[in-house]
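Quick question about two entries, pasted in order.
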Amino acid sequence: MNTIENLPTKTEIFGVSYSIIYDSDLWEKEKCWGVIEYKKQTIKIWRNEDFSLEDYWNIIIHEVIHGISTALDLELESTDEGEKRLNRLAQGLTKVLLSNNWINPNLIEKGDKL
């Protein structure tokens, strides 16, 4: 199963549609929690039973920021430090979206696992 209830299965970044796939084998294949594949127009997220919905949103937003960075030629992820900054940006944005109810906070309980 490549979907998770209450999480998106597609997104659009500057007019380009991306499928979002939740893949339980992603860590073994890519050694990462998420990856955006520009040519395939796919975002893959590691499906992990220990992740909370907030964890998933952090990863989704992280990959979307990669897409935005590439589209705008920002090169946020060109170094390890850039990747760390991108991750902190994704975490902060997730918190803002949750605290403003743009992501339904009722779906996310601290410590809840899927």
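Here is the second entry:
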Amino acid sequence: MIRYTVHYTGQVQGVGFRYTTQNIAEGLPVSGYVQNLSDGRVRLVVEGEKEQVDRLLDGITQYLGRYIHQQAVDQSPANGEFGQPGAGGGICDVRKSSWLRDLWVVRK
């Protein structure tokens, strides 16, 4: 299992980034969240098998690449913070961040 923390810069807020990420993640055995940051970036933290996490990032690039100017990826071992990713993937929870912006939590 692997964990990616990805920061996206560009015109990534106000374009459906979190909603699209939610839709791409459905059906993938990944878990994590995507969050708007106060500085205009979007943060994605996701855990799962490397192949599945890479599929999520590829899907994000495919659907939202025109809005992304830079993607900074930090890779680390998964720590299980979001539980064990299930076979069905999908969204199970919506939370508020400390910035009072929605967090979409992607996990089974």
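Reply: Residues 2-106 form a domain with the Alpha-Beta Plaits fold (CATH 3.30.70.100). The beta strands are 2-10, 30-36, 42-48, 68-77, 91-96, 102-106. Hope that helps.
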